[in-house]
Write a structure and sequence with these properties.
Blueprint lengths: L1 H9 L2 H16 L24 E2 H18 L2 H18 L9 E2 L5 E2 L4 H18 L2 H20 L8 H18 L3 H16 L19 H14 L11
Antiparallel strand pairs: 1-2, 2-3
Length: 243
Amino acid sequence: MADMQTFLASDDAASLRRAKQIFRLVVSGWDTDPTHAKPGGVFWTQATWNTDRNTVSNMPGAELGLRLYQVTHDPYYLSWATKMYDWTNRWLQRPDGLYADHLALDGTVEPTVWSYNQGVPVGANVLFHEITHDPKYLVEAQRIATASMSYFVSQGRLDSQPAPFNAIFFKNLLMLDAATGSTQHRRAMADYAERMWRTVRDPATGLFSFSDPQGTTQAIEQAAMAQIYAVLAWSPSRWNILY
């Protein structure tokens, strides 16, 4: 998705080639064993110990496929994006619109609700709407966004989510704002960014430490916060190339 964003921003051919290569890797992870419960879905990793098919390994695959279809018009990408989208909606989406984490080979659903697993389906629905012009996709994106904002923001769960997950969550919500002409999710993103700046940032180092009282942190957490602050500085006219 980062490669596609780079391509959309700069027309960099190498980024497009890399995105296509990565998409083929994602497709190669599709479960083809009909003896598995609820067969199908992209496995979480290539590790031999992994048996999970996750929202986070399927909906981002769908979103990437949709971006590639918009650029290439190759039905291969739209077909696979639809397949990943439909499988995840069938087996991992709750009636209220929120998504569980993953499905085991015996059909057991791991029910944890993570913020990034809600954001990416919002973005995927926005892209389906752009491609098909079918209003049902925009309605579904808004339904998921509303349920997610209630679950994470109104009910006070957002700050306990990993910062990288929240960066993905908010960027996809801004894609919805771009489609609807709204800025409501940017306000929530700015509130989160301000709160993190005040409560978890070390003024002496400029680094964010989210859970360790000793102040240790991870590079991915710094990258997530850098993304959040950078995107808050973007013009809304560019939100449509986010992921």
